[in-house]
C-alpha cells in the first residue's frame, strides 16, 4: 500500500500540468490514466499509466474523493470532464467543492474541516483566501515541470510512486547540500556586510542627533518670531486704539460744542425781522441735532459729557421758554387788535350798513355782504397769519420735538385768545344770512334771489373761514389729522389733536348753526328744505374735491377735516328739522275739519301740500336727496288722502263726491309736475279716486231731471234680467203702454230743459270757482244724459215695437238745450 503522504506529493506533482484523466474502477482496484498535454505529435505517442492498489475499500474511496477534490481545486475546468466508471455506491461526489486551497486539501488535520465547510458560503461571507487559494502556474513553473517529467525516462519510476518520491527526495537533498556549501562559502562576505551595516547604523544615529539639534534650534527661532509678532500686533493695536480714541474725543467735542453765534442767537431770541427768525431757526435746528445725535456707547460715564449735555438742555429750555413767551405775546396782541377792530367797527353798523337785499337782486346768485368791521378784521387776520407762519419751523417742528409741554400750552393759549374773534365772524355771517332770507320771503318783495343760493353763499363763507384757520393751524403747529381722530373734543383744555383744537376755536359753531336753522324755521317752516339741500350739496362737493373729481362743484375751496365733519353733522341737524316740519304738517292734516259755513272747495291740507310740493320741486331739482323727498311726500300723501276721505264723508255743505272730485283733481295736477318715481303709486290712486268721484257725482245728478223715467226703465231692466221676454213686458200692468205714455207725458221738452237748468245751478252751487271743474262735470253730465236717453229709446224699440210710443224730445233737442244753457253762463 502506498503511503498517504507520498501519494499526495505524487498527485500534486503529476496534476500541476493540464491533463485529460480517465479513471477506471474495477471490483478489486482501479487504474488512473493520464496523458501530458505537450504538442499534437506527442499527444498520441506517449500514454503513461499509473496503477494504484488499496488493501481496503474505505482507503479506495478516500483516494478517489481526495483525487477528485484536488483536481477540482487545481484544474476546475477539467473537473466536469472526469469520467468515473464502476464508482462504489457509497461514494457521493456531488457535494465536492472545487475551490479549496491545495494546502487545506493535503493537510490531514484540515481534511474533515474542508469536507464540512462550503467554499461558496465563505465566498458569500467575504472570507479571505476563499478565492485566492488557487494560483495558476507561471510559464517558468510549467516549463520546469515538463522538463522534470521528460527526465523521468525510467518507466518504473514513472509508474511507481514510491520510487518517484525517493527520486525527488534525492534531488532535494542534493540541492540542499549545494545550498549549504554556498552559504558557508559566503560567510566572509556576510561578516563584511554586517560590519558595513554597523557603520551605517552609527552614522544614521549621528544624523538623527544632528537633526534633533536642528529641530530644537528651529523651535527656538519659531518661539522668538512668535514673540516678536505678538509685540508687533500689540504695538499696532495700541496705535489704532489711540487713533480711535482721538477720533472719538474729537467727535464728542464737535457734537457737544455749540457755535458761539448760535449760542448768542438762542439766548437773545430776536424774532422781529425775517433775518432774525432765520438765524434763530438755524441755531435751534443745530441745537436739536446736538441733543438728538446718536450717543456713543460708554459716554454716559464721562463727567464732562454729562455736564455739557446738561448745559445744552438748559440752553434748550431757556430758548423754548423765551420763544413760547414771545409767540404767545404776539398771539395775544393780534387777538386784541382783531377784537378792537370788530368792536369799534360794529358801533353804528346797523344804521350805516343796512342795505336792502332787494337791491342786490339783479344777479342770479345771492351775495352776503359782510360789515366793514368784519372785512377790516379779515384783512388784518390775513396779515397776522402771514407774519406768524414764518415761525412755523420753530413752533411746529422744533418746539413740538423738544418741549412738548410748552408746545401744548401754547396751542391752548392760542385757542383761548382766538376763540372770541371767530365767534364774532360766525355770528355776523348767520345774522346777515337771516336778514337776507327774511328779505327774500317777505310777501311784498319780488326778489329774484334763491333761498338755496343764499344758504350756499353763507356756507361757502363759513367753510372758507374754517378751512383757512385749519390750514394755518396745520402748518403753524405742524399737525396732521389722524383718520382715527374723534369727531368731538373731550374738554375745552384738550388740544392734543387737530380736531380738538379746531373744536375749541369753533366750539359754538354747531349750536349757532342750529339756532340759525331754528330761526329760519320761525320765519318760514318750509325753509328747512333749502337748508337740507344746501348742506347736502356742500358735503357732496367736499367728497368730489377730496377724490380729485373734475366736475364743477359748488365752491373751489379745498375741504378740510373739520369742515367736512361739521357739514355731515349739520346735514343731520337740518334733516331732523326737515323731519320736524313733515311731522308738523302731518299733525295739521290729522287735525283738519270740514267747513260748516261754506263750500269745502280745495281743502287747506291740499293747499298746504301743494305749496310744499311746489317748493320741493324748485328746491330739490338740483339735489341728490330725492330719497328723503320721496319718503316725506309718501308720508304726507298717505295722511292727506286718509284725512280727505274723512272730511268728504263729514262735509255738510258740499257733497262727498264734489269734495273728492275737486281735491283729487288738484292732487293729480301736482303729482304730474313732481315726476317722482316713488309717487307713481299715489298718482294712480288719486287718478282712480278722481274718476270714481266724477262718475258717482254724475250718476247721482242724472237721477233728478228724469227721475220717473229712470225709475220706470230700471224696472224694465230688472224684469228683463229676471228672464221676461221683451215682447211680454208691455203686457205686465206695471210696464204697460199706458203707464209708459203716462210717464213720458210728464217730461215734455220744456220740462227737461227746465230740469237741466236747475241741475246746472245746483252743480254750480256745489263746485267752487277755485276748483274750476264745472266744464268737466257738465260735459260728463251731458254725455251721461245722452247715454241715458239713448238707452231709453233702445228699450222702447225693443219692448214696445210698433207702438208708436216715443219721448217728447230728441237727441237734437237735448243738444240744443245744453247749448242754450252753456250760452246763458
UniProtKB/TrEMBL annotation:
Domain Exocyst complex component Sec3 C-terminal as annotated: residue spans: 553-802
InterPro entries recorded: Sec3_C, Sec3_CC
One Pfam family named in its UniProt record: Sec3_C-term
Transmembrane segments: 12-33
Keyword ATP-binding included in the entry's annotation: no
Keyword annotations of the record: Coiled coil, Exocytosis, Membrane, Transmembrane, Transmembrane helix, Transport
Highest rank taxon of the organism: Eukaryota
GO cellular component: exocyst; plasma membrane
Ranges where the Exocyst complex component Sec3 coiled-coil domain occurs: 162-287
Keyword Transport among record annotations: yes
GO biological process: one example: Golgi to plasma membrane transport
GO MF annotation list: phosphatidylinositol-4,5-bisphosphate binding
Record-linked PANTHER family: EXOCYST COMPLEX COMPONENT 1 ISOFORM X1, SEC3/SYNTAXIN-RELATED
Family under the similarity heading: Belongs to the SEC3 family.
Protein name, UniProt field: Exocyst complex component Sec3 C-terminal domain-containing protein
Lineage of the organism: Eukaryota, Metazoa, Spiralia, Lophotrochozoa, Platyhelminthes
